[in-house]
Amino acid sequence: MTNSIPEFEADTNCFLVIGSNTTEAHPLIASRIFSARERAKLIVIDPRETQIARMADLYLSPVPGTDVAVINGLMNAIIEEGLADEAYITARTEGYEEMKALVVDYTPEKVEQISGIPAADLRAAARMYASEKPAAILYTMGITQHTTGTDNVKSCANLAMLTGNVGIAGGGVNPLRGQNNVQGACDMGGLPNVYSGYQVVTLPAVTEKFEKAWGVSGLDNQIGLTVNEMIDAAGDGRIRALYVMAENPMLSDPDLNHVRSCLEKVDFLVVQDIFMTETAEMAHVVLPGASFAEKDGTFTGTDRRVQRVRKAIEPLGQSKADWEIVCELARKMKAEGFEFTSASEIMDEIAAVTPSYGGVHFDRLEELGFLQWPCPEITHPGTPYLHKGQFARGRGHFHAIAYREPAEMPDPEYPFMLTTGRMMFHWHTGTMTRRSVKLDQEVPAAYVEMHPEDARRVGVDGNRRVHMCSRRGEIEIDVRITEQIRPGLVFIPFHFAEAAANALTHAALDPIAKIPEYKVCAVQIRAVAPEERQ
């Protein structure tokens, strides 16, 4: 996030929530939005009429996968009505004319044909967002999990810069991270192209820096594989061993039949987790990790906020903190530099080699409660919002981005569009929440949301159960009939192994970010008679 969560309550005058079921996936952030509602306007753009959409001043329901067209349409209306922040654009950005020349073709009327959003509603949203500064854009996987995910994110940045909403309190472009420490994992180099602090592996100066810090030579300066590329590489023999830590690709990755066939081909599969997951059941070795309550460390939240995690109990059984397992394994492999005795020592090394974390140490976190990076020095107070005064790269760069269709669209053979996501009572692959008796009582089984028109079209009777298939797999699943979803679109939460949404999704990737297109694929649906039920 460019900005901080507390700013939403204190400073933001307009929220543009796009591709985010905020009340269910990020309820604490949603509470900040609702606390600001007496002052602030709320626009929600989402194919499903979620709880937060029902509370919006303006709710726009697009066809999934049309986000670039929608945002281009908003910018077209803003420019046409003279609402662009010309002084900000001139002083702080570049590439504006190229972007403007492209979006001139994306009139609200044209975007209505692409997205299904009425032109008048698109214009009303454009006026509201551009007029009520500071305005914050909030998005989640409804924006990123597309073959055009990178384009979608750049489009959000375009819109924010067009209206002068970057580099100010209460504004910005704010991805709400889907897991509690995924920001921290990325910050620490959990990506194939960077070391910690996003220091690029291909730069000789960066390689030299880390070789010196770690007392080694010959560090590989080649970009590695992403998660989905690793699965493919396991399938074709390029990867013979795989170490999976706190991840459950046998439920979270697209095209699960393909994932299973790839994992079955590796010579050695290690899974490190706190429960026996669907992936761990396939492993040759399972290493028992410790939960958050059994270890010390830090979590870095979605707004770059580094906070302490304090051990409440000793690890149960043979489980150990992840860092202890990794260090012990490294020592057994005769690696040097893994003689850490505490999480605090690891934090000190992080600060030594990571400029954005340079002033982050346990003693400061104990004293201050949290620090937000960039925090480059021991005396630095941290940074509540980014790009104040100027962008990190100097001038903010507009990108001229044309709309592209998703990789797979409905057709006569597979006439429905499937999208996936989360729901309130379960989280991710259900590794923890489906072991909670109370949460499992709330939602014990998988379901597909379907519009009443589609239910009649399919012939769903009182039993409300259907067979669904795509070009990759099939499931049987209960139906929830609701008018809060568009006709022709169906939605499945992906938490349920017994009716896994990702048995149907496909692995088409964004060419840059390599994120799968979980949010759009084509499916068939037929009603299941009582005697056919599995």
Structure in a nutshell:
By secondary structure, this protein is an alpha/beta fold. It has 21 helices and 21 strands.
Provide the fold topology:
Blueprint lengths: L4 H6 L3 E5 L3 H4 L1 H9 L5 E5 L5 H4 L3 E3 L6 H14 L5 H7 E2 L1 H8 L4 H8 L3 H13 L3 E5 L1 H4 L4 H14 L10 E3 L6 H6 L6 E2 L3 E2 L3 H11 L12 H10 L4 E5 L3 H4 L3 H8 L4 E6 L11 E4 L8 E4 L4 E5 L12 H11 L10 H11 L8 H7 L2 E2 L23 E2 L18 E6 L15 H6 L4 E4 L1 H7 L6 E5 L4 E8 L7 E5 L27 E7 L7
Parallel strand pairs: 1-2, 1-5, 2-3, 4-15, 5-6, 9-10, 10-11, 16-20, 17-19
Antiparallel strand pairs: 7-8, 12-13, 13-14, 16-21, 18-19, 18-21
Helix pairs in contact: 5-8, 5-9, 5-11, 8-9, 14-16
Count the strands?
21
Q: Structural class per helix/strand content?
A: alpha/beta
Helix segment tally: 21
**Helix fraction bin:** 25-40%
Average pLDDT, to the nearest integer?
A: 94
Overall, the morphology is globular
Q: Give the oligomeric state.
A: single chain
- CATH T-level fold name of the largest domain: Rossmann fold
| Strands ordered across the widest β-sheet | 17-19-18-21-16-20
From the N-terminal CA to the C-terminal CA, the straight-line distance is: 44 Å
How many domains? 3
Assigned CATH class of the largest domain: Alpha Beta
Q: What share of the residues does DSSP label as strand, in percent? A: 15-25%
| Biggest sheet layout | 6 strands, mixed
Defining traits:
globular, Dimethylsulfoxide Reductase, domain 2, 21 strands, 6-stranded mixed beta sheet, alpha/beta, Barwin-like endoglucanases, single chain, Rossmann fold
Structure description:
- The chain folds into 3 domains: 5-176, Dimethylsulfoxide Reductase, domain 2; 182-372, Rossmann fold, CATH 3.40.50; 416-532, Barwin-like endoglucanases (Beta Barrel), CATH 2.40.40.
- Helix 5 packs antiparallel against helix 8 (108-115) and helix 14 packs across helix 16.
- A 6-stranded mixed β-sheet has the order 17-19-18-21-16-20. It has a 5-stranded parallel β-sheet with strand order 3-2-1-5-6. Strands 9-10-11 form a 3-stranded parallel β-sheet, with no helix packed on it.
- The protein starts with a helix and ends in a 7-residue tail after the last strand.
- The mean pLDDT is 94.
- A hairpin with a 3-residue loop joins strand 7 (194-195) and strand 8.
- 32% of the residues lie in helices and 17% in strands.
- By secondary structure, it is of the alpha/beta class.
